[in-house]
């Protein structure tokens, strides 16, 4: 599916699940300190949750090696992704960290550029930033190394293979859990997880993915053609439902 469709799905899923995040008993969902979320900080946590879901819904496609024409079609979604990443940086209170900004610059380069070499350079900058944070003990080393391995996989594997597989998903989620699992009571990690997993599910019904990578067989259901009318309809519907959820005070 198109990147903007993935983002719309992630946003809508976050909007309708946010109330559950703040009303279930502690420990029911499996992230930490949910019961300690205070009303004074709830809006910040909601923003972190929804923004993280939007970012997570786009990350698997960092393995994409599309043509210039395809990149132009997705330009709006790509710019929205960079904005979401920057918003998440502010929510996570990392605006004073030059290394965090380096990671954002790398992601922006990987998302917005039209050439595969530039995409790899962007991912390389992100990995370098993560490793620096790890070896200066600002981020757990295990998490940074796992995310670095995921980034290397995104750099050198074909589209809808490693990052869209069970193995790639587990590596990413494990790395994120170690790195940011306790941030804002776990809502950032859960948001990233929901967005990422829903991306894989959406691509499963849009020509499938190499779910069992490194085995090369593609698994999926050809219900939706990427860029086709159904794809665009799903994206538009999810966007409208997300806006309706906000207007009705679903958060």
Automatic annotation (TrEMBL):
Presence of the UniProt keyword Transmembrane helix in the record: yes
Single GO molecular function: hydrolase activity
Membrane-spanning parts: 6-24, 120-135, 141-157, 169-190, 233-250
Keywords linked to the UniProt accession: Hydrolase, Membrane, Transmembrane, Transmembrane helix
A Pfam family hit: YdjM
UniProt cross-references to InterPro entries, sorted A to Z: YdjM-like (IPR007404)
Protein name (record): Metal-dependent hydrolase
